[in-house]
Amino acid sequence: MGSNNIFHVTICDFCSKRFGFQLGNKSPISSMHNCFNFEIKIETKEMIVKPATINDAKEMHNIHTNAVRKTCKDFYTQKQIDAWLEGRTPEGYNEGINKGDMYVAEEDGKIVGFGHAIPGEIVAIFVDTTSHKKGIGKLLLDYGLKIALKGHQKVKVESTVNAEGFYKKHGFVKIRDDVHVKRGVESPIVVLEYSAT
Questions:
Q1: N or C terminus: fewer CB in 10 A for the chain?
Q2: Using only C-alpha atoms, what is the Rg of the chain?
Q3: Are strands 102-107 and 35-44 parallel, antiparallel or unpaired?
Q4: Cα(154)–Cα(195) distance, rounded to whole angstroms?
Q5: 185-195 and 173-182: which strand pairing?
Q6: Which residues of the chain have pLDDT under 70?
Q7: Which residues, other chains included, contact 135 with Cβ-Cβ below 8 Å and sequence gap of 6+?
């Protein structure tokens, strides 16, 4: 459950610095080794992955567009990025949503990423650029693999160049370099494969 919890602990000043606690208010108490009462605030948030609905399409579109523009900019030209995104609309996600192939990650009720998977293939995974380094991509990949592995021992993904390391980190192996063509503009991609055996 998403909540803020406050714990009161007794710990010496030396140990607080040694173990790197983030400390709030403190007040001295009688002790042989100069201990203090510290207030530590720990934030816990609820993260869930669930099937996407039509109502999610607009936010999925925003996450997709922002992710491509920000995370791909050092690997692709502006012309390639513009061609990739041209003509994309929230309604374009409806077919995948209606088929049950698309899903979202929510953190305390806010959509922070989405994925698209079909048997034999991870089609896409995108994470809100303000929510990186939280393990959201791994959650989305794990959920997608459950779909992709139905009736298949191997799963393919056509990855952007910048996401190649993410897939390799989670068990995918590079098969080949390839090219994605949209609006007559060629963009390099990487084809990787995951094996369940």
A1: C
A2: 22
A3: unpaired
A4: 4
A5: antiparallel
A6: 1-45
A7: none
